[in-house]
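Progress note, sequence design subtask.
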C-alpha cells in the first residue's frame, strides 16, 4: 500500500471508529486511565484520617489533599479539552496520563502535607487532561452506529470505579500504608499509556487556534470560586474571600461574553440554553457535590468518632 493510500485508510478508520480488535485494545487503555483518575478522586478520601495522623495535622488541614486535586481539575478541564482540538486529542491524553503517573510517584514519596497537596494539584492537572479528551477519543474509537453503546459503557466504567474506590482504598490500607494508594497507579498507568500509544485513535488537530484568554479566564473563575468556598467552609470569611468571589464573578462573566462571540467557544452556550439539558446539568452538579461532601466527611466520622477500622469504613461507604 502506498503512503497516500495508507493515510486515506487511516483517516477513514478514524472518521468512523476503529476496527476490531484494535478498538477493544484502545478502549481497554482509555477505560483503565479513566478508572484510575476516578478511583483516585474517591480513594484518597478514605485515607484522609490515616494521612492526617501520619503528618500530625487535623481534619480541616488534611482535606486540602482532596481539595487541591479537585480544584486543579475544575480549573483546567475546559482548557484541556480545547487544547485537544488544537494539538490532537491523543497527544493531550498521553501527556496528561504521563503527568498523572509521575505525580502519583511524587505523592507516594511526599514527606509533608504541603508537598503532598502540591503534588496532588499537579496530579489533578494530569487527570483534567485525561478527562477532558476522553469523550472525544471514545467518539473516535466507536463506529457511529455504536456510539450510544460506547458512551453507555463509558458511563458504566466511571460509575463502577467511583463506587469501587472506597472499598479498594480500604483494602489497600488494611494491608499497607497510604502510600500504596498512589503507587498502585504506576503499573496501571503505564499499561494504559502503552495501550494508548499503540492503539488509540490519532486524528489531526481540528483547528490551528487556541483561545488562551478563555482558558485563563476559566481557570481564574473556577479556581477563585472553589478557593472562596473552601475558605467559607473553614470559617475564614474575610476581605480575601470576598475578593476571590468577585474575581470569580468577573472572570466568569468575561468568559461567557467571549463564548457568545466565538466560533469555537469553550462553553457550549447553545446546549446550556436548552431547558432540559440545563436541568440535567444542575442535577448532575448537585449530585456530585453531595457525593463529594459525603466522601470527605464520612471517613472522619466513622473512623475518628465511631472508632471503626478503615476496612469497615470502606465497606460501609461502598453501597
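Output:
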Amino acid at each position: 500500500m502506498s503512503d497516500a493510500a495508507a493515510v486515506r485508510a487511516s483517516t477513514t478508520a478514524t472518521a468512523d471508529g476503529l476496527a476490531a480488535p484494535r478498538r477493544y485494545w484502545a478502549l481497554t487503555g482509555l477505560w483503565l486511565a479513566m478508572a484510575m483518575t476516578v478511583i483516585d478522586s474517591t480513594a484518597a478520601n478514605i485515607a484522609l484520617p490515616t494521612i492526617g495522623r501520619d503528618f500530625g495535622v487535623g481534619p480541616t488541614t488534611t482535606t486540602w489533599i482532596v481539595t487541591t486535586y479537585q480544584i486543579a481539575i475544575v480549573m483546567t478541564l475546559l482548557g484541556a479539552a480545547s487544547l485537544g482540538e488544537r494539538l490532537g486529542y491523543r497527544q493531550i491524553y498521553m501527556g496528561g496520563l504521563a503527568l498523572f503517573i509521575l505525580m502519583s510517584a511524587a505523592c507516594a514519596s511526599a514527606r509533608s502535607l504541603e508537598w503532598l497537596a502540591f503534588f496532588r494539584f499537579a496530579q489533578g492537572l494530569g487527570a483534567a487532561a485525561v478527562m477532558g479528551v476522553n469523550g472525544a477519543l471514545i467518539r473516535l474509537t466507536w463506529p457511529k452506529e455504536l456510539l450510544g453503546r460506547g458512551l453507555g459503557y463509558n458511563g458504566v466504567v466511571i460509575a463502577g470505579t467511583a463506587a469501587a474506590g472506597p472499598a479498594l482504598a480500604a483494602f489497600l490500607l488494611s494491608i499497607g500504608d497510604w502510600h500504596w494508594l498512589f503507587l498502585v497507579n504506576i503499573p496501571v498507568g503505564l499499561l494504559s499509556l502503552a495501550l494508548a500509544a499503540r492503539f488509540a485513535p490519532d486524528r489531526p488537530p481540528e483547528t490551528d487556534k487556541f483561545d488562551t484568554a478563555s482558558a485563563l479566564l476559566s481557570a481564574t473563575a473556577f479556581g477563585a470560586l472553589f478557593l472562596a468556598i473552601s475558605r467559607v467552609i473553614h470559617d475564614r470569611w474575610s476581605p480575601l474571600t470576598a475578593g476571590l468571589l468577585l474575581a470569580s464573578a468577573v472572570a466568569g462573566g468575561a468568559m461567557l461574553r467571549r463564548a457568545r462571540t466565538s466560533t469555537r467557544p469553550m462553553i457550549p452556550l447553545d446546549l446550556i440554553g436548552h431547558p432540559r439539558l440545563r436541568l440535567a446539568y444542575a442535577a448532575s452538579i448537585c449530585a456530585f457535590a453531595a457525593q463529594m461532601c459525603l466522601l470527605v466527611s464520612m471517613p472522619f466520622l466513622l473512623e475518628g468518632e465511631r472508632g471503626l477500622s478503615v476496612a469497615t469504613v470502606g465497606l460501609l461507604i461502598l453501597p
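The chain has 15 helices and no strands. Work on this subtask will continue into the next period as scheduled.
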